[in-house]
Each structure stands twice: as C-alpha cells, then as structure tokens.
Task: inverse folding
C-alpha cells in the first residue's frame, strides 16, 4: 500500500529543510507497546484492591420506588454499598468547565432513570465476582415510565420528558432557542431562482468507539491524605476537574496518572470512572478499581450519536449550488455530555467545504431515552459529511455533471466568505480532488484540472452574498406547546434582514506568547507564506456588492515549483487521465495529463497576500493595535510565529 | 448471482482544534546537567503518537537531536494543564505550547553558550547535532552538554522554558450562527472501488485511492498509520458498525465483538495514499491533525459507489446486506446509473 508525498504541491509555502520535523522517527513508546510492556492503568497492582460495579436500570425510562440492598450487603466480600446520597456533588455536566449548559447528570441516579443501563447504586467488594453477585442481589422496585426513542417523536407536544433539567427534550441554546441556527444570505429567495431543487434525508445510527482497552480507573488512598488515580482518560485535567467537583476534594489532594491509553476515539472523555473510583477509595480506605466489561463498554458507554439530516439544495443548470438548507437532529440520549457542543461544531462546519451564498440550518440536540452519546473521532462532523457528500452526488446527477467537477466548481477557495462569516484561507480541497482523480484515472476536464484553491476566491459570483434573512422561530418551549415544523424558517411569524458579512470579527488565532523569549526565531518557523490582509476579501456591505479585485500580485514564491506531470509514484492501478474506456488498465508509462494541478506562477494574479515588507499590515484586526511587535521582522520572512499571527 | 462493480467519490474538510477555542495547553521544558531536555506535559497518548510528535517538535524548536529529548506526560503532579486529546487539538494546541517552551529554553541555552564563548547570543546557531557555534564560524563552538554544565554549575542559570497556547473563546451568534470555529482545516478527497453481490447484498471494498492534505506531515509514518487506520474505520462505519442495528429501536444491541461487526486485519483494503502539505500559518510547523478526519470521506464514498454499482441509494448507515437487497428489490432489480 504505497504512500506518496506530493512535495511538488504548495512547495512555495513550505520550508522543507527542517532537521527533525518531517522525519519518520520511531515512536518514543513503541518498543514497550510491541513487547507488551507499556504500563496501562490496569497494569498498576495494589494490595487489597477492591472492585466496583454498578446496579443499572433495566428500563428505557423508569422511576425508582425503593431499593433494598440488605441481601447484597450480606454477600461475602461486599465492603460497601455506595448510594446516590453518598456522592458529595452528584449532578454534573461535562462542559461545566466551559460554563456551557446546566448540571444535568447524576453520577448515581437517585430517583428517575432516563436510559437502560443508567447506574443507581455501586457495590464495592473484594472481588469482581462478589461485586457481580451483590449487584444481582439488590432488589429495586421499579415503576416503568413511558419512553421516547426517536428524535423527532421527542420534539412533539406530549412526548415523555427525558431529562428534567431540559423539560422540552432539547438543549437550550443562548437561553432563547431550542436549536442552533445558521443564517447566511436568503435561502428562500434563492430556491425560487434555482433551476433544480434537490432534497435528501440521511441517517447515521449510533457507533461504538470500540477501544481495545475498556474505560476504567483505579483510585487509592495515599499516606499523605491524597488519592492517586490511574486512569484511561483522554483528558487528564478534564477528569481531575470533574472528580474534584463530584467528590468535593480540592484538586491538590488528587494525583492523576495516565497518558498511555489503549485506544480512545472519543469515548474516554466522559470522566465517570475516576470520581466513582475515588469515592470508593474515600469510603473504604482501600484501593478501588472501576472498570467496564465489554458489554458495558458497548451498551452503557456513550457511543457516537445517531444523527438525522435533511438537506435541500437549490442548484443552477451549470452546477452552482446557490442555496442549501439543513435540518439536523443529534440524538444526545438521556443526558447532554458533549452533544450540545457537537451541534455548534457542526453548525460552524456547514455547508461543508463549499462556497454557497445562501445557507440556513436548524440543528437540534435532542434528548431521548437511550444511552447518552458523546464524542467520537470526527465528532459533530462525520454524520453531516456523509450526508453532504451523498447529497453532492445527487446534485451531480440532477444537473448531469461529473461528481468531482461539481465539487471543484463549488469548492471553497482562499478569500471566500464562509457561512459562519469568516474568510476562508489555507484551502486545499480542489488540489486534493485533482490529485486523487488524476491517479485513479478519473478524467476531469482541462478546466477542472486548471482550478486552484489560491485563485479566484472572494470574487465574482462567489462573493455575491445577499443580506441575511433571520427569523425568531423555535423559542425554548414553543414547539412543545404547539407543533411547528423543524426546518429553517418554519413557523416564523416575522422575518428581519441583517447585513451580509461579519458583525463580530474575532481573530482565529492563538494568544500572543506571554514573554518575548517564548517566540521562536522567524527563520526557524517552517513557513514560507507571508501574511497580511486577506487579499481579495471583499468588504461585504448591506447588499451584494462587486468585490474588490485581488491585491497586487506581488507575492513571489521563493521557488517556482515545476508543475507535476503525471503521478510521481508509478502506480499500477491506472494512469492519469486515461480515457474512460481504458480505465483500470495498467498504464505502461505515466501519460502526460491534460492539466495537472498547477500552483500559480509568479505572474498570475494571486489571492495570496502581498508580503508586507517592514510595514504594518494595512488593516490589522480591531484590538490588535496594542500588540507591540515581538518577533524579528525581516523582509519576505513570515511573521507567523506560533500563535499571534496577524495580530501585530 | 452477479457481482457489480462500482466507483464512488467524496471529499471533505475538517476543523483542527477545539471548536470555538477556549482550550489551553501548557508545556514545560528543562535541561538536565548534561544537556538533555525533558518535556513535561499532561497530554494523553492514545496511540496516535502524541509523545512522539511533541518530542520531534521540541527537538526541532530547541535545535538539538531528537535522542536528546524525552517527553514525560500525563502525571498531574508534574505536567502542567492541558485540555485533553480530542477535537484534533493535540498536535495543534500542544505543539504550539511546546514550541514556545522550547523557544524560551533555547534562548537561555544560547545566552549561556554566549557567555562561555564571549560572543553575542544573537550570533549563535545550533547545528541540530548537539553543538552551538558562531554563525559563519563553525570553529568557535561549544556543545549543548558543555553549555548545560556551564549554565547550571558555573553560571547558576536554568535552561528551561514554559509555553502556553490558547485560542481565545469565540461566541456563537444565536440568530446567524456567526462564529470563529477554528483556525485551520485539513482536507481529503477519496475514490472507492467496490463490488456488490446482488444475491447476498454484500459489499466488498476492493480499492481506495486517497489524497489527504495535512498541512505538514510532522512524522510521515505517524501520518501513514493514522490514514490507514482511518480508512479501515471508514469502511467499518460504512458497512458494519452500530450499537443499535434497528435504530431508533434499541433491540439486538451487540455486547461483544462477535456481534459488533468490524472488518478483521485481513479485510484491510488496498489503499494508495497521496499526502499534500499546505502548511497552516498558526499550526506547529504548519501541521494539521490528520487523525480525526481520515475516516470521514470513506463513508460517503462507499455509499456513492454502491449507488454507482447497483443503483441503490443507501442513505441510512450502516449499509448492511439487508438494506442493499431491499433497495434492489424496491428498484425492481439492479439499476446502475452510468458506469464510471
């Protein structure tokens, strides 16, 4: 399975003469991994280790009438039963750290459970077998409650209330709406002008992170009145903060050790094992391990959320997508965990890597009576990318266009305004499409092969963005009283218009180094790009305006890369740009492709910013004036220092 | 029974770093008396190579050989705060923090060396092999080891640095969704070739061609492992995996790997990978995290290829044999569109 590096592309933006970066160094920890000697949390051995297991709800939605643990307490080996009342701070929400959302999930649930498998009681025993026996001996008088499992059913008036902290079955956004809105341009007007309307509905079911090492933690009292905790967490201080809060211990009494994890993929952020293991150690004075078995990992452990998406596109005959609307439902399960954040991350990602002048979305974080979902590799993006890319093929079919050429036509480019109202930069979608098409023998037109992410952005039709239409539908609780549809603008009684473009510019960059000597020397950065104002960025007015032409093409790459001819690595599957009939046949020699991806030559008008030679950038972002230059400044040398770019 | 071949395409971008920011990472770097450097972090190595990539970044920024750097991570008593290994933030946030810490330590190392050589620190360069010398005069040189010894035992000076990297938190506008989600994006485009069996409904992915744009491959082998593993996960998501096969119904949920289906090692699809590198201006040496995004394009490309093969749009994941067969039946047979 060959890997090729297309060093020819964007070579003018890189310094490839670095000493250690870019080298295939052997991993620092690999010898331990491949010889089975790397210590994971469960490899730490303790005398007198106790084992913790939970009593779990057998119903989707139920009320605990009473609990009788007397038989369980008599099981030989049982040391302690932990009840909800034993937890110093039982309610938490993961993003409390960022002050986002309300505490909605108990560590051990006292009264009403919202999903099958929800823990209501913990048993600490001298062996795992004894803990399992005791769990089976706990008698719970359950009252089963009506449940709701489908995201759209959960939004209907009269649906069972899953999570009493959010009684409308939706997360509250901005104390105002039951969903997160995205509004950019005027989709309704654009649909009226479109030659085709293309609609699709997509569904992704929950998926398990499936790490080899299941989630867990071991906590042990130390002689110095502290607790050490070995953990599989993906986020050490996240788990410290959650544990300190729920056990009401100052973090100075917690010593967390982790760092080598047997696969995470997002499922080891939730920090439920650490506080319960520490609580067990606090209450028994012994080391306590809380570790999921595989069944718990798969059915109680939080999966990637189910997502449902409806997409509606307005498309012109030539393939330009002029409007796109999304209605999205993230299935949070019974508690918020990180889903509320995933919805906002997803909203910032819409409409995918395409420049579409009119975009609207309503995206819901919905509570249902299932295992809470959480982060997983690609969090907030995987489901909608599946939907968008299936939708793109539907659009291509509707207009009779090659699917890759359709993407290249609509692909975002440096200088385009994105739907979340920031200017695109550092784009490379077009080049990625060209490279893969070329090496797979998927013929693209010379025009498609000649396109570049660095040319043409923020100009022409790409910059014709009308005023934005906003509505105020979907206020918190409104939908529970009287059903209104979920798509953008549904139920809107009033529409307002606001200016296109940014209202609240916020630099997409890191903080400045706090001291001068934390600044790396400019010539050791590894970049060859120059910064400055985003060239060609139109000043978006209150109506569609003709964009300012790109800045003077004074950007001169330090080296002019030779346009690639054919695939650099001989590849047996197909030669570049073979005629359709010849596809799949081995290419004897790499044929010269029609028009390979070509970086702009020094004479091509380029959207790249002009190098600012020893003067301040003409338009530094607001608030940057107080930033004194900290780094050495040399003509033609990037001032992008790891962090404060564009702010000096 | 007929086998139908199909080809599908998808392309994506992926936000690098925690959405909206507000997620700091810190790093500490210090030298031993013999000029070896320790990097103290609390980042988690999930197998993605966090320890290794921060080690390379530290060595590069310090200007010393990688063998002279060791990363110690994830002990809350010694490693400073980090938000965690998620949201494609590890390399981006922690890498930048390490650069800053290493830059401060390097500045002190050059000052100590300057005192020994009786020159200005600004005239000194490192050769990346453990030596410091006067720019343009390689014979006026001192080793990093001698510098560390002199600094700590004669000059009473630490060779240490602290770094923090924070992207300040962005608001989200309630009405328009205006926000600054992240500062850079990785990219991918991918073509899947597969075969659909119209009797069993089974789909076999036979080949993947991909192009991934990762800013800079800080360690090409670590990038390769991510992309190969990610493609495997993408195929698995597309065709096999779910904890709730009849979602939203909760029945038949798998509880072990006999019932939670995933491809085995022998099912890894032949995959030709092309790596593009357009450095992101605020990322460490331009590198964007490739780990999260790499499964994403595979899933729609498989769905589009199944449509290309048999004319069934599988808009509901995973694309099980049952769904394929039901789709073929609903269409009144295999009805592929124009073959690619």
Result:
């Amino acid at each position: 399975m060959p890997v090729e590096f297309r060093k020819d592309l964007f070579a003018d933006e890189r310094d490839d003469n670095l000493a250690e970066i870019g080298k295939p160094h052997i991993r620092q920890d690999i010898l331990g991994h491949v010889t089975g000697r790397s210590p994971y949390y469960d490899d730490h051995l303790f005398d007198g280790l106790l084992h913790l297991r939970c009593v779990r709800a057998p119903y989707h939605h139920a009320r605990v009438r009473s609990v009788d643990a007397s038989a369980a307490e008599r099981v030989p080996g049982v040391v302690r039963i932990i009840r909800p009342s034993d937890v110093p701070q039982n309610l938490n929400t993961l993003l409390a750290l960022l002050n986002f959302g309300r505490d909605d999930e108990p560590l051990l649930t006292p009264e009403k459970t919202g999903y099958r498998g929800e823990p209501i009681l913990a048993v600490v025993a001298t062996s795992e077998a004894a803990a399992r026996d005791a769990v089976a001996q706990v008698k719970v008088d359950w009252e089963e409650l009506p449940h709701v499992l489908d995201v759209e059913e959960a939004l209907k008036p009269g649906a069972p209330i899953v999570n009493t902290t959010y009684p409308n079955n939706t997360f509250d956004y901005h104390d105002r709406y039951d969903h997160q809105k995205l509004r950019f341009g005027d989709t309704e007007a654009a649909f009226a002008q479109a030659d085709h309307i293309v609609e699709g509905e997509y569904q992704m079911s929950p998926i398990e992170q499936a790490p080899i090492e299941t989630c867990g933690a071991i906590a042990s009292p130390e002689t110095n009145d502290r607790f050490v905790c070995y953990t599989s967490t993906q986020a050490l201080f996240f788990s410290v903060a959650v544990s300190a809060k729920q056990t009401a211990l100052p973090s100075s009494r917690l010593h967390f050790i982790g760092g080598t994890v047997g696969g995470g993929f997002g499922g080891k952020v939730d920090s439920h094992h650490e506080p319960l293991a520490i609580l067990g150690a606090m209450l028994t004075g012994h080391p306590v391990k809380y570790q999921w078995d595989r069944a718990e990992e798969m059915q109680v452990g939080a999966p990637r959320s189910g997502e449902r998406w409806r997409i509606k596109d307005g498309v012109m005959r030539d393939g330009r997508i002029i409007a796109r609307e999304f209605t999205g439902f993230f299935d949070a399960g019974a508690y918020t965990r990180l889903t509320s954040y995933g919805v906002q991350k997803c909203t910032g990602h819409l409409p995918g890597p395409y420049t579409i002048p009119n975009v609207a979305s309503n995206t819901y974080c919905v509570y249902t009576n299932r295992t809470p979902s959480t982060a997983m590799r690609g969090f907030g993006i995987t489901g909608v990318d599946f939907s968008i890319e299936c939708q793109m093929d539907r659009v291509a079919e509707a207009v009779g266009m090659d699917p890759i050429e359709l993407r290249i036509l609509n692909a975002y480019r440096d200088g385009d305004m994105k739907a979340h109202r920031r200017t695109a930069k550092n784009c490379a979608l077009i080049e990625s499409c060209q490279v893969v098409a070329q090496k797979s023998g998927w013929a693209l037109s010379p025009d498609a092969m000649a396109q570049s992410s660095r040319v043409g952005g923020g100009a022409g039709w790409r910059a014709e963005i009308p005023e934005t239409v906003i509505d105020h539908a979907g206020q918190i609780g409104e939908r529970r009283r009287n059903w209104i549809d979920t798509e953008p603008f549904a139920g809107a009684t009033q529409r307002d218009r606001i200016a296109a473009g940014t209202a609240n510019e916020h630099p997409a960059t890191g903080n400045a180094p706090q001291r001068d000597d934390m600044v790396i020397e400019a010539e050791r950065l590894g970049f060859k790009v120059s910064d400055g104002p985003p060239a060609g960025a139109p000043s978006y007015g209150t109506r569609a305006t003709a964009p300012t032409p790109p800045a003077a093409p004074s950007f001169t790459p330090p080296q002019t890369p030779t346009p690639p001819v054919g695939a650099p690595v001989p590849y047996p599957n197909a030669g570049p740009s073979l005629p359709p009939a010849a596809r799949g046949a081995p290419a004897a020699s790499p044929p010269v492709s029609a028009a390979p991806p070509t970086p702009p030559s020094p004479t091509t008008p380029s959207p790249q910013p002009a190098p600012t030679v020893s003067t301040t950038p003409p338009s530094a972002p607001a608030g940057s004036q107080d930033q004194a230059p900290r780094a050495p400044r040399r003509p033609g040398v990037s001032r992008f220092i790891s962090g404060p770019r564009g702010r000096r | 029974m007929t086998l139908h071949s199909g080809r599908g395409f998808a392309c994506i971008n992926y936000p690098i770093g925690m959405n909206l920011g507000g997620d700091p990472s810190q790093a500490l770097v210090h030298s031993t008396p013999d000029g070896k450097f320790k990097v103290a972090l609390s980042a988690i190595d999930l197998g993605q190579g966090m320890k290794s990539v921060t080690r390379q970044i530290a060595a590069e920024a310090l200007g010393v050989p990688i063998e002279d750097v060791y990363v110690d991570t994830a002990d809350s008593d010694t490693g400073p705060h980090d938000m965690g290994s998620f949201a494609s933030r590890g390399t981006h946030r922690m890498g930048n923090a390490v650069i800053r810490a290493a830059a401060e330590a390097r500045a002190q190392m050059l000052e100590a060396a300057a005192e020994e050589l009786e020159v200005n620190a600004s005239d000194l360069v490192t050769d990346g092999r453990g030596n410091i010398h006067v720019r343009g005069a390689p014979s006026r040189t001192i080793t990093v080891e001698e510098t560390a010894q002199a600094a700590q035992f004669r000059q009473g000076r630490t060779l240490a640095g602290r770094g923090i990297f924070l992207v300040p938190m962005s608001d989200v506008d309630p009405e328009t969704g205006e926000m600054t989600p992240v500062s850079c994006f990785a990219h991918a485009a991918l073509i899947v070739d597969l075969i659909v069996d119209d009797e069993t409904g089974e789909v076999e992915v036979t080949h993947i061609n991909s192009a991934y744009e990762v800013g800079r491959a800080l360690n090409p082998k670590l990038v390769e492992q991510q992309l190969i593993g990610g493609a495997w996960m993408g195929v698995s998501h597309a065709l096999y995996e779910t904890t709730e096969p009849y979602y939203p119904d909760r029945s038949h949920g798998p509880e072990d790997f006999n019932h939670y289906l995933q491809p085995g090692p022998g099912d890894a699809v032949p995959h030709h990978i092309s790596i593009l590198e357009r450095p992101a201006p605020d990322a460490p040496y331009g590198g964007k995290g490739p780990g999260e995004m790499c499964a994403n394009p595979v899933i729609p490309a498989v769905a589009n290829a199944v449509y290309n093969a048999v004319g069934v749009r599988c808009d509901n994941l995973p694309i099980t044999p049952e769904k394929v067969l039901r789709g073929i039946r609903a269409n009144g047979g295999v009805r592929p569109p124009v073959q690619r």
Remarks:
- Chain A has 14 helices and 20 strands.
- Chain A touches chain B through 167 residues (CB under 8 Å).
